Amino acid sequence: MFPEVRTFENFKHLHAGMLSDVKRKSLPEIAKAVGLHDAQPLQNFLTNSPWSVVALRDRRLELTLLMLEGRSFKLVIDETGDKKKGKHTDYVARQYIGNLGKVDNGIVSVNAYGVLGDLTFPLIFLIYKPRKRLEVGGVYKTKPQLAVEIIETLLKIGFNLDLVLADSLYGESPTFIAVLSKYEKHYLLAIRSNHREFSLPDQEAKYGVWQEFERKFSDGKSEKRYIQQINESESRLITYWRITTDANNLPKNQTWYVQTDLKSDMAVKSGNLYGFRNWVEYAFKQGKNELGWADFRLTNYQ
């Protein structure tokens, strides 16, 4: 992967530093943590060394595929954003930043993670490039389009996805859903409470009875949740569900609407399956901050 030993050593030092307890993952701090005299070797590694991050990613994915040994897993798609100062980092712009819950100056990426039992593993991420920050000749792609690109790449490599989980940005995207249907991949996607299917004038949504289930967490604990099926037509291949912590008051931040092509007798299973997305989202936020994702400033995208 690397043209010389020195390049590999710097690669190793950089990753050891990111895994260390250094509070701010800047190159000078990482250099101190791994025993280098200064950060120049790490700087050269990131800016001048002739290695390919794409080739490195592909090798990592090959090893991940070998580890799975053909087993299927759940794929979680989620976008994430972090605040960044100035405009020197490529593709930073004023946009919605999920970590902050508001529009601010920052960078956003679309991420794909696999879930196999209690194991969560990273697959691919792609940086979202706002229209106003596109370089000459650049092609604008929406976040759902980036997610489609990720899924098609994973399928081409040979990964076996048995279920795709994503939030309402993707659940409200006909393009994203069409691609999942094309490849015959099951999905469980969040939708908005005012989803178009609920507001058609010639249809009336039929709300089923609330079913109580135990939301099981990765640490073995569980909490009561409630799930209710919403159907406009019994002949529909897609079913809609409402999941909440309180069936009487439907708290806004604790009530989710989802759509799925899984069979309609999947009430309890659907509730726990969708919980994986929230679990990964929370864990990813902690993990990326620990590894310094929120700190980085790279003025060259490659």
Automatic annotation (TrEMBL):
Positions in coiled-coil regions: none
Record domain Transposase IS701-like DDE: where: 10-199
SUPFAM superfamilies, alphabetized: Ribonuclease H-like
Protein name stated in the entry: IS701 family transposase
Record organism: Nostoc flagelliforme FACHB-838
Phylogenetic lineage: Bacteria, Bacillati, Cyanobacteriota, Cyanophyceae, Nostocales
